[in-house]
Amino acid sequence: MAAYTRIQKWLKSALIFTVFVNIYWCYGHEIVLDDDIFKASPSKNVVNVGIAKPRRFLLYDVNPGEGFNLRRDVYMRMSNLVKKLREKQEWILVLPPWGRIYHWKSPNLDQYRLPWSLFFNIESLNQHVPVIEFTDYLKEIGKPEIEEVYTLQRYAEGWTNGKFEEKYDERECIDRPAYNAKEGGRFKGWFWGYDDVYALNFKCLSVQGFASILAPMLWESTTARSVFLDRAEEILHDNYGGTEFWEARRSMRFAQHLIDIGNDFRKKHLKSTDEKDKTVMKENWQDQKPEKGTAKGGPYLAVHLRRQDFARNKRKEAPSIENAAQQINKIMKDRKLKTVFLATDAHKSEIDDLKNQVEGKVVQFKPSKTIHHQYKDGGVAIIDQWIAAHARYFIGTCVSTFSFRIQDERQILGFDPNTTYNCFCGDKDLDPKCEQPTKWDIMY
Ligand code: GFB
User: Fold this and answer.
1) 175-180 contacts: CB < 8 A, separation 24 or more?
2) In the chain, which segments carry CATH 3.40.50.11340?
3) For 254-419, which CATH class?
4) Using one digit for the tens of pLDDT, what is the confidence trace for 375-387?
5) In which residue ranges of the chain is pLDDT below 50?
6) 105 C-alpha to center of ligand 1: Å?
7) 406: Cβ below 6 Å to ligand 1?
C-alpha cells in the first residue's frame, strides 16, 4: 500500500513538472496559428498549432414569384459564389427551405419548410461546395438568428450612360422593405415560415454584375458570421455555360427516392430501362462524362407543354392545343415513335383535348395520394422531368426553365443535342420566327 502511494506521488510530481516545462517552453517560443498543421515549420523555434477557421454562413432567397426551376438556377449561382468565397474563408451555403411557391397549389398539402433532401441528393451537392439545411444551420448557431440581411436590388437610376459596369453600393431600398425592425432592434420578415427567426441588421444593396462581385464585400466589408442575400436572382452567373456552371449543375442530382419512382414508371409504362436505353449513370456525378450521343433513350417522345400563366398571358411560346398536337404528330411520324410521355401543368380539359388529337398513346405520370403527400408538387415535377429526360426525343416549351432543366439533364446523360434542344413553335401570328433553343455543350 505504501509503495502504491509513493508511485502516485511520483506521478503527480512528474505531471506538474511537465506542465511547468511546457509553459516555460511556449513562453520562450513563437506560436504560429496556422491553417495547415501539416506544413513543415519554417524554423525550429516555431510551433504550428492548427485551429479550425471560423465557419461563415451564406444564406439566400429568391423573389417569391419565381418558380422551382429558376430557383434551381439561382442555387447554382450561389454555390459558385460560395466556391469563390472559400478561396479565402470557410464559407458554407445554407439551403433555403422550399415553400410558398406560387405554382404549388395542390390542396391539402403543407408545402413550406420543405428540406432540400426531399428533392435533391445532399451528398452530391456537398461534393461541389459544403451545404447545410436551414434547420442544421439553426442548430449550429444555437439561436434563431441571422446577423445580416441584404436585399439585393437594381440601381434606381439604371445603367450609367447606358454602359454596363459591375458594381454594388448600399442604397435606400427601392421597394418597400421586406424586413422591419421590431422590439430590441431585431428585424422580422419572411424566413421560410420559421417565425422565431430574426436578423440583427438589414440593408438594401444595389448590385449590378456577376455573383463573384460580392466576394470582396463578404470577405472584407462584413465580419458577420451569417449573411443572408435576399433577391439573389439579381446577380448573374459568373460564367454561364462554363466548367463551374456545369459542375454546380451536375452536382444537383435528384433524391434517390424520386429517381426510383421515375425509373419504376419508365419500366412499367414506357418499356424503358437504363441498361436498354444506355442511360446508366455513374455513382458519383464527378465521374459522369459520357460521350455525346451515346445515350439512346426509351422508345417514346417526351413533351413538356407549359400552360397556365404561359397560356393565360398569351405568350408567343405557348401554342394552341391544336397546334401542339400537330407538332407532336409530326415528330412521332418522323422519329417512328408511337408513345408520348406528356409532362404538363395544363388543366384536365386541355389535356383531354390534346389526347384526342394526338395520333398515338399519351402517357402521364399521375402520383398516388401517398406519393403526392410525401413528395408534394415539387417531387412530382421532378419525377416528370426525370422521365422526360430519358426519352428518345424531347420537345419542350421555349424559355420555360422547367424545359431548360430537362435539357441539361439530357446533356448530362449523354444524348445527341439534336434530340434535346427542341421547343414548340407558337402560333404563326405570334411566333413567326419560332427560334429554337441554344445548344449548350457540357464543359468538364
Ligand atoms: O419551374 P418553373 O420555374 O418553370 O415554374 P417556368 C413552373 C412550375 O409549374 C413548376 C409547375 O415548378 C411546376 O410546379 N409545372 C410546370 C409542372 N410544368 C410542369 C409539368 O410538366 N409537370 C409538373 N408536375 N409540374 C416560370 C416561373 O416558369 O414562368 C415564373 O418560374 C413565371 O414564376 C414565368 O411564372 C412566366 O420557367 O416554366
Assistant:
1) 177/151, 177/202, 177/204, 178/151, 178/230, 179/149, 179/151
2) 56-243
3) alpha beta
4) 999 999 999 999 9
5) 1-5, 7, 10-49
6) 12
7) no
